[in-house]
Design goal:
The chain is α+β, with helices and mostly antiparallel strands. It contains 3 helices and 5 strands.
């Protein structure tokens, strides 16, 4: 039986640092996979880590998204695979425990406090909010 992780981290593989041909997404994916594996039991859930050709964060490379079942999705920009891995792993640890994925910027680790490009509510949260307004 194959189980599917409850959480996913997606990195853009086409982002380029301004003025260069450097595309750090693939390096970031490999470093993040190794760091999450090394974290072991300190992360309560499995995270699938993959890449995608574009997440429209071209002005703020490299972009990384955190997704979870029935959770808010986060998109971070300006992520550097050589210095931001610990912040990404720490956020994975936090995100795994957030029942709806919602957290304040002051609770995000390091650079992720100021590099958030978007926080998108989950479909279920948005649906519940519209139900409340309608009643």
């Amino acid at each position: 039986m194959t189980t599917h992780p409850n959480h996913k981290i997606t990195a853009c593989t086409s982002c380029r640092h301004n003025g260069t041909d450097c595309r750090p997404g693939s390096e970031l994916i490999e470093k993040l996979r190794a760091a999450i594996a090394a974290a072991g039991d300190t992360i309560s859930e499995d995270f699938e880590i993959s890449g995608v050709a574009c997440m429209a964060g071209c002005d703020r490379p490299c972009t990384v998204a955190y997704h979870g079942s029935r959770k808010a999705t986060y998109l971070f920009g300006d992520v550097d695979p050589t210095v931001d891995i610990n912040d990404l792993v720490t956020f994975a640890q936090q995100y795994a425990y957030l029942h709806d994925g919602w957290c304040s910027s002051v609770n995000r680790p390091g650079k992720l406090r100021k590099s958030t490009l978007a926080r998108v509510p989950s479909y279920i949260i948005a649906l519940q909010a519209s139900d409340v307004r309608a009643s």
